[in-house]
Amino acid sequence: MRLATGTYVGNGQDNRPIAGLGFQPDAVFVKRDGTLNGIFLRTKDMAAGLSYEVSAAAVDDAIQAILPDGFQIGTRPGVNENGISYTWMAFKASAGRLKVGTFIGDGLDNRTVAGIGFQPDAILIKGDNAQT
Predict the structure, then answer these.
(1) Which of 12, 26, 51, 98 has its CB 3.0 to 4.6 Å from that of 1, i.e. a possible disulfide?
(2) Whether 22 contacts 69, CB under 8 Å
(3) pLDDT in tens, 28-51
(4) What CA–CA distances, in Å, run from 45 to 28, 56, 131?
(5) Are 64 and 72 in contact (CB under 8 A)?
(6) Which of 10, 77, 9, 86 is nearest to 37 (CA)?
(7) What is the pLDDT confidence band of residue 130, given thresholds at 50, 70 and 90?
(8) What values do phi and psi take at 78, rounded to 5?
(9) Is 5 helix (H, G, I), strand (E, B) or coil?
(10) What is the pLDDT, as a whole number, of residue 97?
(11) Where do runs of H (alpha helix) occur along the chain?
(12) SS3 61
């Protein structure tokens, strides 16, 4: 697994690249300093232009894209308000250490999600709606 972290100061400009990670991430988190807005998440499997506010439904104009050497942000205040500081984490999947993927829920209890390839120590699941 590869991990990069960093900070940037928002400038309010759309389609802004955050580059220099040294790898193409599979998942990116961005957190605005202070209490306004939540943590934003984008994975490589998400529809173009969308990301999630971790405690809400999908939004546009936040983390817009995964780039070959970083990620692209839009103008949403949670990721790019002029003069505000932001902290980010980006992960690159690695066999046996980190897996990023999707599955369709079926509402059944005790469901197995197969295909991970190892027994994880921690799991983060984000539903495609505001309830989870």
Answers:
(1) 98
(2) yes
(3) 999 998 766 678 889 988 888 889
(4) 12, 18, 20
(5) yes
(6) 77
(7) low
(8) -70, -15
(9) strand
(10) 86
(11) 77-80
(12) coil
pLDDT of residue 107: 85
Placement of tokens 């998440």 in the chain: 41
Task: Report the C-alpha gap between 61 and 55 in whole angstroms.
Answer: 17
Q: Rounded to whole angstroms, how far apart are CA atoms 17 and 13?
A: 10
Residue in 129, 131, 117, 122 with CA at minimum distance from that of residue 57:
129
Separation CA 53–CA 29 (nearest Å): 10
What is the C-alpha separation between 54 and 57, in angstroms, rounded? Answer: 8
Token code pair at residue 2: 């590869």
Residues 16, 79: contact at Cβ < 8 Å?
Answer: no
pLDDT in tens, 4-29: 999 999 999 999 999 999 999 999 99
Q: Which amino acid is at 121?
A: D
More confident residue, 49 or 57: 49
* 8 Å CB contact between 2 and 87: no
Length of the chain: 132
